Amino acid sequence: MSARDGDPRVPLYQNVKSELLRAIAAGEYTPGEPFITQREIRERFGVSNTTAVKALNDLVVDGLLVRRRGKGTFVAEGPRTTRSDEDGADASIMCVLSLLHDRSPHAARLIRGVEAVCAELGYRMFLSDTKGDPDLEERALLRAARGGAAGVVLYPVEGRAPLPALEGMRRRGVPMVMVDRYRQDVVADAVVADNFAVGFQLTEHLVAAGHTRIAVLWEETDSTSVRDRLAGHLQALQRHGIRQRREFSVLRPYLGPPADSRIETVRDLLALAEPPTAIMCANGYVLAGAVHDLTSLGVQIPDEIELAGMDDGGPLELPPLTLVSAILPSEEIGRRAMTILARRMAEPDGGDVEHVVLPIGIRVRDSSTGHLRVVRTQAPGPG
């Protein structure tokens, strides 16, 4: 049968839920035994993943079903409880622990996507900010593994968090989806932007505008998103027969060092016999730092140096300042990640690991070029 044959005045998931309630009341499913799976609900009622998950979640919250991590969904044997049972089921609250270290608009939109799906499916989201610290990330993951999180959306910090925390999650059957970047040493679902395309397409636009000396300024240096962007940049240079210059693309942090060291990086680039005519900035915060440092050195933007942004978030409005900037599908990353996570929570053995790569957008400055003029024309001395 199709759930669409039910009362059209109520949400579709309610029709599915009513049919499942009738089946439970009729004794079609024995208490303590596995319940119908999300996939079987989709096939039986002809509904979407979201509808199937919402119907199951409501039955869990109502205490008629329980979830046992690593095992699946079962018909409840007794009254609903608010504590986890011996198998790790929690019928009252579905927790999604999001671990994020990035405070940029990109991260805010990503969280919004996660929250939107949580609201649709009846999950409660707890947010843990790791502040870019691997130790804080490890503690948060251990809390998730031990303390009742039904699943985790993980925005990994730079570098590698200790594996025991991730292994603890695996042993306890807590599913995890990584966002923005992924860990090559961890088998887990991931949803990312096409970071190779970020580096490749920005470089293509700069080359088309006549630039062959393109420097790159980074914030992080040890993540898959950074390495993919660098690979795309270098591939575009190679495609056009442009020589790669180590001093232009070396992976070194620009925002991390003190301000005097940071400005020295820019001063060293400008002092080269053939200085860059364009700079690609890892994000909006790097771009803001580059604008500050370039203008303090008397450089006019874009007359002397063009800028490009690898995402569209940060403290400055990018379009007037950049020739070209990438637009990341931030909210869609969050939505897709949470949708995958919900499926993993409903069906722990529900298929192969997914690695989803979402397309990016490109914003090109129009003819009304923005300019930054500098009052001080003499560069400050060292120190």
TrEMBL record:
One function term, GO molecular function aspect: DNA-binding transcription factor activity
A Pfam family matched in the record: GntR
Transmembrane helix is among the record's keywords: no
Keyword DNA-binding assigned: yes
Record-linked InterPro entries: LacI/GalR-like_sensor, Peripla_BP_I, Tscrpt_reg_HTH_GntR, WH-like_DNA-bd_sf, WH_DNA-bd_sf
Keyword field: DNA-binding, Repressor, Transcription, Transcription regulation
Alphabetized CDD domains for the sequence: PBP1_LacI_sugar_binding-like (cd06267), WHTH_GntR (cd07377)
Domain (HTH gntR-type): residue spans on this chain: 10-78
Protein known as: Arabinose metabolism transcriptional repressor
Organism: Occultella aeris
Gene: araR_1
